[in-house]
Specification:
Blueprint: H1 2-13, E1 26-27, E2 30-31, H2 36-40, E3 49-54, E4 57-67, E5 70-79, E6 82-90, H3 95-106, H4 116-121, E7 129-134, E8 139-145, E9 151-158, H5 162-171
Antiparallel strand pairs: 1-2, 3-4, 4-5, 5-6, 6-9, 7-8, 8-9
């Protein structure tokens, strides 16, 4: 079964490139740029914990997001006080149906996705991460293996300039050290 899943994932990477030019602007009614209080009162889930990820990057987490006829954990991620990502934990059994649904909605994965070689090693290499990017690199499926080969899967909606915002925010911390 694992080999079948691995093969299907690898195939999805190389069936084409999305021509859709639109990019997501948030998750459901949560728009990128929302403030923490707006996210907390959105009703999407019960945000009950706040954590600092790194300088200027924080997260609000919940354990009761309705997703695919069940509930799961999720987090709104903020850069400099504004929501720039929404991450949803996905069960391994939901991976293939999720990828199929994303392809139907957003088109084929983008070239930023992990290589076929990486996906072929996802079941055998500890500490490996593999990515499928969709919709102008604003929708991401991330699969991670830990040292014991336990997989964690996230569906992440991200603003187009998330990485630039984080890098700009954090690069200033080096200015007095270099």
């Amino acid at each position: 079964m694992k080999l079948l899943k691995k093969s299907i994932i690898a195939m999805t990477l190389f069936l084409g490139v999305s021509t859709q030019a639109n990019a997501v602007t948030g998750y459901k009614d949560l728009m990128f740029g929302s403030l923490p209080d707006e996210v907390k009162t959105s009703g999407v889930c019960t945000f009950n914990s706040t954590s600092t990820i790194s300088k200027g990057v924080t997260a609000l987490a919940c354990d009761d997001l309705p997703f695919s006829h069940s509930t799961t954990s999720a987090a709104a991620i903020f850069v400099d006080g504004m929501m720039e990502r929404f991450a949803i934990e996905v069960n391994i059994d939901q991976l293939m149906p999720l990828v199929t649904a994303l392809r139907e909605k957003y088109g084929e994965p983008t070239p930023k996705s992990s290589s076929r070689a990486t996906w072929n090693r996802i079941d055998t290499d500890a500490g490996l991460e593999a990515y499928l990017w969709f919709d102008n690199n604003t929708v991401l499926v991330q699969v991670t293996n830990d040292a014991q080969m336990n997989k964690t899967i996230f569906l992440i909606y991200t603003s187009k300039d998330y990485d630039d915002k984080v890098n700009n925010l954090q690069s200033g911390s080096f200015s007095s050290d270099i």
